[in-house]
Amino acid sequence: MITRQIEIEELVKVLPEAVAYLSDKGIRCLRCGEPVWGTLEAAAKEKGFTNEQISEFEAELNRKLMCKSN
User: Fold this and answer.
1) Do 14 and 66 contact (CB within 8 A), yes or no?
2) What is the pTM (predicted TM-score) of this model?
3) In terms of C-beta density within 10 A (0-12 exposed, 13-18 middle, 19 or more buried), how is residue 37 classed?
4) Which residues partner with 39 through β-bridges?
5) pLDDT (tens digit, 9 = 90+) per residue, 18-56?
6) Which of 1, 27, 28, 51 is most buried when burial is the number of CB atoms within 10 A of its CB?
């Protein structure tokens, strides 16, 4: 399960397509090459997203993960 506390590095490992999804949402720092990116929540808040929007990201990423598993 993907939560807002997942580290971006772990998110990319379990769901590589999350990079494109989050990039489309304006969270483009995923490709910057920094060794530690922080959590999904921290990356989203840095870009000005609200808790409600972050919850929507969690839900959508979990749907994508479930589809990938099937």
Assistant:
1) no
2) 0.86
3) buried
4) 7
5) 989 998 998 875 555 555 578 999 999 999 999 999 999
6) 27
